[in-house]
Amino acid sequence: MGTLFGFLIFIFVVFLLGLRLINQYERGVVLRLGRYNSTRQPGLNWIIPFIDRMIKVDIRITTVDIPRQEAITKDNVPVGINAVVYFKVQRAEDAVLKIENYSYATSQYALAAMRDIVGGVELDVLLTEREKIAGDIKLVVDKETDPWGIDVTAIKMQDIELPAGMKRAMAAQAETEREKRAIIIKAEGEVKAAENLQRAAGILGTIPGGLSLRTLETIDKLQPDPSKTVIFALPVEIMEGMQSLIAERKKNKQ
Predict the structure, then answer these.
(1) Are residues 197 and 236 in the same domain?
(2) Which strands form 35-40's sheet, in the order they lie side by side?
(3) Contact 88, 152 (CB under 8 A)
(4) Which of 155, 140, 151 is nearest to 83 (CA)?
(5) Which of 61, 166, 242, 248 could disulfide-link to 212, CB 3.0 to 4.6 Å?
(6) What digits encode the pLDDT tens for the residues 111-159?
(7) Helix, strand and coil percent figures for the chain, each rounded to 5
(8) How many other C-beta atoms can be found within 10 angstroms of the C-beta atom of residue 23?
C-alpha cells in the first residue's frame, strides 16, 4: 500500500513538472532529446520532464533600433542615418532552429541593406523619397529573413544628418529660392496693377476733364510738410483737360 502511494506521488510530481503555460502571444517549440518535436499553441501544455525542453517564442511585433550609421551617397556626400525595424515571428520553429539570435540578425541585416541602398542613390533622392527608399530596404530584408521565419512589417528611416557645410549650402539655396519667388510674385502684382491703371486711364480719357479731376483729387489728398515745397509738373494733356472741363461748365451755365 505504501509503495502504491509513493508511486502515485511520483506520478503526480512528474505531471506537475511537465506542465507549461503558454501565453496567447507566444508559441512553444518543443525539443525532445535535442531534436525538434512540435510547436505548441497557447494554453496549458504538458511535456515529458527531463526529456523534453520547451523554448517560448514571442510572436508579437518587435521593434529594433538601428543606431546612427555613416553612409556615403552616390554623389559622395557622407550622411548619418538611423532607422527602426518592425518585425514579427511567423514560424517559431524556424526562428529557433535556423538562426541563433533572430532579433540581432534581423537588425544587422537591415543595417547592411540600408548602407547598400543609400550608397546607390543621390542625396536629393534620399531626402525627397525617404519612404520609397525605406520600402526598398524592407523588401530586401524581408526576402532574406523569410527562411528564418521572420516577417519584416516595416522599416522607418528616422533622421538623416548632413554635414554642416551641406546644411549651410542648402539653407542658402532655400533662401535664394524664396527671394526668387518673392520677386516673381511682386512682378506679377506690378503687371496686374499696370493693366488696371491702363483700363482706368482709358475710362477717364473718355470722360471730358476726368483725368484732370483725378489729378486734382490726388493733389488734394497730399499733406506735405509745411517746411517743404511740393512742385508738380503737369503734362499738357492735363492742361487741355482742364480747359475742356472749364468750357463744358460754361456751356452748361449758358
Answers:
(1) yes
(2) 35-40, 26-32, 52-58
(3) no
(4) 155
(5) 242
(6) 989 988 988 888 888 888 888 999 999 999 999 999 999 999 999 988 8
(7) 55, 25, 20
(8) 13
Output the average pLDDT for the chain.
Answer: 80
Give domain status of residue 76, yes or no: yes
The whole domain housing 51 covers: 2-58
Residue 36, pLDDT above cutoff 90: yes
Torsion, Cα 53 59 63 66, to 10 degrees, reads 60
> How far, in Å, CA of 165 to CA of 172, rounded?
11
Residue keyed to cell 532529446: 33
Domain count, the chain: 3
Residue that finishes a domain, picked among 104, 137, 162: 162
175: β partners? none
- pTM beyond 0.85, yes or no: no
72 and 52 in one domain? Answer: no
pLDDT digits (tens, 9 = 90+) for 153-192: 999 988 888 777 665 666 666 667 777 777 788 777 777 8
Q: Contact at 8 Å (CB) between 53 and 38?
A: no
Residue whose C-alpha cell is 548602407:
115
